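Supplementary Methods S3. Input chains for the assembly prediction are listed below.
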Amino acid sequence: MKAITVEPKKSGSAQLENVSEPDFRSGSVLVEAIAVGVCGTDVEIATGKYGWAPPGERRLVLGHESLGRVLEPGPSSGLKKGDLVVGIVRRPDPVPCPNCAVGEWDMCRNGQYTERGIKQIHGFMSERWRIEPEYAVKIDPTLGILGVLLEPTTVVTKAWEHALAVGRRAFWEPRIALVTGAGPIGLLAALLGIQHGFEVHVLDRTQSGLKPELVRALGATYHSSRVADVGFAPDIILECTGAGEVISDAISSIAASGIVCLTGVGHGGFLPTIPMADIASSTVLKNNVVIGSVNANKRHWYKAAEALARADRSWLTRLITGRECPEDFTKALGRGSQHIKVVIQFADI
Ligand code: BGC
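Predicted structure tokens for the full assembly:
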């Protein structure tokens, strides 16, 4: 079968190749791939900055934003042939650490977790894949291709949950949320902010086009200024760019008692000009919290599926701005800034 694979840590090594059918040991449920979303992490892996092949192998099947159709449900999954499913990305570490032991693998303490398409387990960019029944999330069939947005929605579901949980440390009535970055993660974070009842602002360097339109269609406000120039102090900033300069601005601009939640995994770039002790003083004097948030556990997958089901389908549809066939995967990986979410489509829905 065809699969898009990469040699991790080797830039430009991605290729479409023939690989063996998925190993039965990777799960009793056999799934036909419909679509796989491409995100910044895939680009980081394809450019040699991130990613790990399975032990003893040189190449990794890419892809962690899946959508597929069950071909063989296996003996105990409760799934039926034809059900639409999305695969959970992370697997608990084998030790396991206390967090993995209680199913909070997103909070793994020892770093020995594995992730499909990212860290030591093959991903979903192959014509067929197998999955353990407990890691296959059945989605509302009426979502159709929009199910491919579930994985990025889980990431922001966790980010929101954690930011709000931190806020409960004291009396706090947050009202204004700023999302930095109007890519898929930022837009989905904005969607959830609206669902949580916030006044939502989204900031991105793009000045016109689909991003501002999608933000306004949510009932949120769009800014193309710097964070420091938006004209208010946000109670929550969900940082979805991973860009050093924006992160630095976010930490300096947050309201007293406010929370900055970082979701981007960037590398290099900007060197801060503000001395660390000054950043710390401002954080102390304003009781701020800066948290990082990565991945998602089953609770977030459940909540994310509910959030997607509640969202306006026509708005979600506009997030998918490009569909490429597997042969054209390089176009999907090289997606331009005019795109929101590009998916590689393996089969018709
Ligand atoms: C994925 C997460 C993953 C993270 C770090 C993100 O792109 O959505 O599931 O945990 O990368 O590897």
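The pocket of beta-D-glucopyranose is lined by residues 39, 41, 64, 89-90, 115, 118, 151, 155, 265, 294-295 (CB under 6 Å). The mean pLDDT is 97.
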